[in-house]
Amino acid sequence: MDTSSYRGLWTALITPFEAGNSLDNPVDYSALDRLLQMQIDGGVTGVLFLGTTAENPTLSTAEGMEIVRKWIEKLEGKTKVMVNVGTYATGKTIENIHMYDTIDGIDAYLVVNPYYNKPTQTGLYEHFVAAAKSTQRPVVLYNIKGRTGVNLETDTLLRIIATCPNVIGVKEASGDIDQMQEVIDRTPDNFLVLSGDDGLTYELAQRGGDGVISVASNCIPGDMADFVHLSLQKDPHGKELAEYFTEFFDKLFIQTNPLPAKTYLAHKGIIQETFRLPMCPMDAHEKKIWLDFIEEKKL
Q1: Does 32 fall in a domain?
Q2: What is the pLDDT of residues 261-281, one digit of tens each?
């Protein structure tokens, strides 16, 4: 299939919560509306709902469905929509896919390496193939060894692609630029290789990658859209922006994602500084470093 419209900047959207019990405080739909308008105005390629950045493990099934259903209507085709459906159980992942297949307007699913149980490469192959074959929609795989304890090897990825034509790309967050290069070199030209790390976006683009699924674009979607566009075009200004944003990308992960991103948005008055446990407000020392940096750089 033609995957060119999927290239560019995807925002791994946070979930804003209202104040209240940090176990089940309500989703703040007014703040979510503001966030989505920021993404539309910023010109992002697409929005990823219900990823790790969204504190997805703390959301109920009903909340996830409500978020996706309501805000597909808000986006009205102005950006693409990807929904994270991956879990550490293949059956549950397929159950999620069948559930979201009932909602029109979803452009792709994100399916992560099964976390915690660390399957073999054979197990990874069987898991991803079973998930992809359960839907007609495009599927993007998510390789993140740091959070799942297992790496999707390139040979395994190639087997999956050969078996499942609707697997159109991979979010590569292995942190291994050599592996990313190998994936780019060995996969078909229309296969998407998206960075899972804001800080590797520019380098991956120069090596033939296709964009990023970003945390930073929650905060600065317009600037990130310009940066990704210039990087993909191999424009010299892309390198200048990469250098300018390097410290921002680093400090955005001064503590566990999405703590700094949500703290930034709360500081700007866009959302409330609220989380669901086990996520919680930033520690005072790191928070001061982060907010002082934001004010100093006028970001």
Answers
A1: yes
A2: 999 999 999 999 999 999 999
DSSP H helix total and E strand total for the chain:
12, 8
Q: Which of 61, 53, 45 is nearest to 6 (CA)?
A: 45
234 is catalytic: no
Active-site entry in 109, 142, 202, 264: 142
Q: Give the whole-angstrom CA distance, residue 162 versus residue 167.
A: 9
The Cα 38–Cα 224 span in angstroms is 12
Cα 205 from Cα 71, distance rounded (Å): 30
C-alpha distances (whole Å) from 57 to each of 17, 146, 269, 279 are 14, 17, 25, 10
- Asked if the structure places residue 147 within a domain, the reply is yes
Of 171, 251, 262, 287, catalytic: 171
Torsion of CA 26, 27, 28, 33, to 10 degrees: -160
Listing DSSP states for 19-64 in one string gives: SS-TTTPPB-HHHHHHHHHHHHHHT-SEEEESSGGGTGGGS-HHHH
Q: How far is CA 93 from CA 11, 141, 142, 239, in A?
A: 22, 12, 13, 38
Whether pTM > 0.70 for this model: the answer is yes
Q: Is residue 106 part of a domain?
A: yes
Averaged over 70-75, what is the pLDDT?
87
Q: HSE-up of 206 (CA within 13 Å, CB side)?
A: 11
Task: Measure the CA–CA gap between 256 and 240, rounded to whole angstroms.
Answer: 27
What is the Cα–Cα distance from 73 to 160, expressed in whole angstroms? 33
| Residue 151: domain span | 4-238
Q: Is 171 a catalytic residue?
A: yes
